Amino acid sequence: MNSPLGHVLVVDDDADLLASYVRLLIESGYTADGAGDGAEAIIRLISGQYDAVLTDVHMPGSGGLDVLSGVRPRDLDVPVILMSGDPTLFSAITAVEEGAVAYLTKPIRRSRLLPLVEKAVNLGQIARAKRASLELAGVDGHLVGDRSGLRVCLDRALDTLVAAYQ
Hints:
Elements: E1 7-11, H1 15-27, E2 31-35, H2 38-47, E3 52-56, H3 64-71, E4 80-84, H4 89-97, E5 102-105, H5 110-136, H6 147-165
Parallel strand pairs: 1-2, 1-3, 3-4, 4-5
Helix pairs in contact: 2-3
């Protein structure tokens, strides 16, 4: 059952940090699930609906940028917050291009994290409500505003075009 504040997926390969972020969110009134890497996060995102994702950038295998781009085919609306103990200009630029809500440098103070999670959850819930309203009104609800979402829509359009051409 989801909390009235929202359902957040936390992704970090450091088990202690993962547990502390999940505990902090639950104590703050959110429902929170944890994933130890990007691959597990994508599986959780496919099987459930989240209002926001908080993910580490650098993890073995699939990292936070993979989670960010991997979530878009499944859910165009879920906001993603990236965090890194070793930030790089490349990952920060990519995060912005791919539509991340924020890019945080670890360690992250509670006073900085909780307002950003609240903002992300609210954005996700508003985007879902807007998409549902557009669909009820008979308007195409697949409008997107970030690079990953645009890429997903373009890929879908190209798949349709190829099928029509054949």
